[in-house]
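Please check this.
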Amino acid sequence: MTDVHTGLDTSAGRLEIPRSRGAATGFLLVVLGLWGALIPFVGPYFDFAYAPGGAWEWTAARGWLAVLPGAVTVVGGLLLLVSSNRAAALLGGWIAVIAGAWFVVGRSFAEPWGLGDIGTPVAGTSAGRIAVELTFFSGLGALIIFLGAIALGRVSVRSLRDIRHAQRPAETAGPVETPEHAVAATAARHRAEQEPDESTHHRSWRDLFKGSRRTPVAH
């Protein structure tokens, strides 16, 4: 279907999007996912962690509550970062939102589902405990949900730019020269080279007769 105002086919660009559409949010989600998955293992070096549990010590709680949602967030961010397909980018956004939600509510299901105990924040003050809580789970998860929602909003909207992006290859591409066209063009050039130039032929005969005329002598 062609729009009467723009002259563009509005049926184009349903799944194609510019790769830059979700690149920024995808990159941020990858960074946040790596943070969420790794901070429980490196935090003890700076007394910024949950106890018990030392640096690079694997526990079931860390695996289920930190590594799993962090890795899922990275996958969702990568889909947004590199995809030029709307469906794949939407999938990446939803994956990130679900992973962020698990960061927020995962510990509520840890005890009933037997996922392990993450422990208590290592901090001497209430402000320190709040900071650990926010940066490890609830605040991190809320930020991931926020970025995932932004990405879903940007990717789901089908704009005029998407239609132009989908039609750009067809408009900018020149005519495709098939082998048959190439052979025909070569044959035409060969015939043109073999045929004599009629204008040159006629001109040479005229010059011959003109040369036989007597030149009038001025008196």
About this structure: The CA atoms of residues 74 and 181 lie 50 Å apart.
